[in-house]
Design a protein that fits this description.
By secondary structure, the chain is mainly α. Helix content is 74%, strand content 0%. The two termini are 37 Å apart.
Length: 294
């Protein structure tokens, strides 16, 4: 029996994505809102605004994070810093340039998907998925540098590992949910799946406690922290970063992924979805592709 996949559903089964209790309404509202804005695509005004907003809202924030890190490492007075920086700079400037190149390459590759019905998903992928992942990576690398004095390398690895395991657990959870939604059945976990899920649940549940205990232990037996206020402030900021990471990951996994999956199935079954949405050939594919479809 062929193993079911979230990418191999039939057209009829893919329509079940609209019934997702978590992302269904968000996907519909987001799609309808994007449709209203599509009428401005291709105008000179839209291109000018696109360039300005890209510089201000995408390139700008990522550059500022690296610039702040560069200032702290090479220009700030170490005596003015509450905690000592990492001995290794985890966020050199080349990380920003590599992220920018990858982001631009994704845009260039995405140009081959230029049918009208997929443009909405293409644009939102660049802004609400790839950009956010790029931003999140830079923020976490900055965090590694800032909290080295409080954590140490072992503590930082434990903290980032906790975030990673939480993300993996959410991906597995949402994938199982989408499989059940697409095929209208309850998937039976294999022994391996059950083992992994138990491990992930344990790490997610108790990992934060272990990290917190490590911080307290390191603070008590280390002179890298100047006073108790540093400990309280450090733990507070750390907790906020943990919550921020999980919230962003949850948004991408539970809302954006099902939404982009709908775009994937529209690309896979374009004619079926065109008929289902009652669109003309020109409305669905655009003027450039009108002659290719009758």
């Amino acid at each position: 029996m062929k193993k079911k996949s979230i990418f191999s559903a039939s057209f009829e089964e893919s329509l079940n994505l609209l019934d997702d209790s978590v992302s269904g309404k968000f996907a519909q509202d987001n799609y309808q809102d994007a449709l209203k804005k599509e009428k401005y695509r291709g105008t000179l005004k839209s291109y000018v605004w696109l360039v300005i907003l890209t510089i201000l809202l995408i390139i700008g924030p990522n550059w500022l994070i690296v610039a702040l890190n560069e200032y702290l490492f090479y220009h700030a007075n170490p005596k003015d810093l509450t905690v000592g920086l990492s001995e290794i700079n985890f966020l050199p400037y080349w990380v920003f340039w590599m992220g920018l190149v990858i982001w631009l390459l994704l845009i260039i590759v995405g140009k081959r998907f230029n049918q009208q019905f997929i443009l909405i998903y293409r644009g939102q992928f660049h802004f609400m998925v790839s950009f956010i992942i790029w931003l999140l990576i830079e923020l976490n690398l900055l965090l590694l540098n800032l909290f080295y004095g409080l954590f140490g390398y072992l503590g930082m690895a434990a903290f980032e590992g906790l975030i990673l395991f939480t993300i993996i657990y959410m991906i597995r959870d949402k994938s199982t949910s989408l499989l059940n939604l697409l095929y209208g059945s309850t998937e039976i976990e294999s022994p391996t799946d059950r083992l992994f899920n138990r491990v992930f649940r344990f790490i997610v549940k108790y990992g934060g406690i272990v990290v917190a205990l490590w911080i307290i232990f390191r603070t008590i037996f280390s002179d890298s922290i100047r006073n108790a206020d540093s400990l309280v402030g450090g733990i507070s900021v750390l907790f906020l970063f943990l919550v921020f990471n999980i919230l962003i990951a949850a948004f991408e996994i539970y809302f954006m992924f099902p939404y982009m999956l709908q775009g994937y199935y529209k690309w896979k079954y374009p004619e079926e979805y065109r008929d289902w949405e009652d669109k003309s050939v020109e409305e669905w594919y655009g003027k450039k592709h009108k002659g290719k479809f009758k």
